Amino acid sequence: MTRKPGEPIYLGGQMLALVLAVVCPVALPQLYHVLIGPIRFETRVAAGLGLAVVSGILLYRLFSAAAKNEP
Description:
By secondary structure, the protein is mostly helical. It has helices at residues 12-35, 41-68. Helix 1 (12-35) packs antiparallel against helix 2 (41-68). The longest helix is centred in the C-terminal third of the chain and has 28 residues, at 41-68.
């Protein structure tokens, strides 16, 4: 399978990171609420936003490093 010029390269690790970045901001605060105890809505929103920002920064660094290596 050949790749066309300009077509992005997506590696397995990048796809996993993208899925985690989408799922974690919603799932982790909800999982905490179910397993450990109730938390306020504001805390869930703050945790979700914090996770989204951190995962966005990590995705940016991961994808930009792969883009630099493209021939």
